[in-house]
Design brief:
InterPro entries: Cell_wall_metabolism_enzyme, Dup_hybrid_motif, M23ase_b-sheet_dom
Radius of gyration: 26 Å
Keywords: Signal
Pfam families: Peptidase_M23
Largest sheet: 9 strands, antiparallel
Number of strands: 12
Protein name: M23ase beta-sheet core domain-containing protein
CATH superfamily of the largest domain: Glucose Permease (Domain IIA)
CATH class of the largest domain: Mainly Beta
Number of helices: 2
GO molecular function: metalloendopeptidase activity
Structural class: alpha+beta
Order of helices and strands: HHEEEEEEEEEEEE
Number of domains: 2
Length: 191
């Protein structure tokens, strides 16, 4: 009886399942991929992976390569190669002036302001006025950071943003030689 019911089941349901599957169109034919209307821009500066992280309990620094040291971090010089850090913790995207910068995910604006640039600017760069900066919290202690934005900023502190919202427009404010977006993802800290 069990064998008979399995045969009956497969004779009844198998043609229905096969008909259903053959009637389905491939996903990309139903919803083809449409590339974004904006251009993609090259990265012109990468993240400095020698950015040190500090263990506040014992004041030791751990470099990206695993070397520990407890001397002062000397920027931009190095002492025996142990304290090297060029100060660049993000990715720079070279693009034309005033390209809209959009939020990669839903979030909450933690910082949106023009503030004085680093003093002195790294590499002896002459600053271009106050630097436009936006920092967005995306939850789970992740933050996206945008530097060198032109006025006006499209968001304010305390505002909620959604994926694709325009935050502002790229520029060359602060310590920037040319027009670009400095972009970072930070974990566990935003300032």
């Amino acid at each position: 009886v069990k064998k008979l019911s399995t045969i009956s089941y497969s004779r009844f349901y198998l043609p229905i399942v096969l008909a259903f599957l053959s009637a389905q169109e491939p996903f990309l034919e139903i919803r083809p991929y449409v590339p974004p209307s904006f251009e993609q821009y090259p990265a012109t500066q990468h993240v400095d992976h020698h950015y040190p992280s500090s263990n506040e309990l014992d004041d030791l620094f751990l470099r990206f390569d695993g070397v520990q040291f407890n001397e002062d971090i000397i920027y931009p010089d190095c002492v025996s190669g142990s304290s090297c850090y060029d100060g660049h913790a993000g990715v720079d995207y070279h693009m034309p002036l005033n390209i809209p910068i959009i939020s990669p995910a839903n979030g909450y604006v933690m910082w949106a302001a023009f503030s004085p640039p680093a003093d002195p600017c790294p590499g002896g760069i002459t600053p271009n006025g106050d630097q436009g900066t936006i920092i967005v919290s995306h939850g789970a202690n992740y933050y996206s950071v945008y530097l060198h934005l032109n006025p006006p900023l499209n968001v304010s502190v305390g505002e909620n943003v959604e994926t694709g919202d325009t935050l502002g427009f790229n520029g060359n404010t602060g310590c920037a030689i040319n027009t670009h977006l400095h972009f970072e993802i930070r974990k566990n800290h935003w300032p």
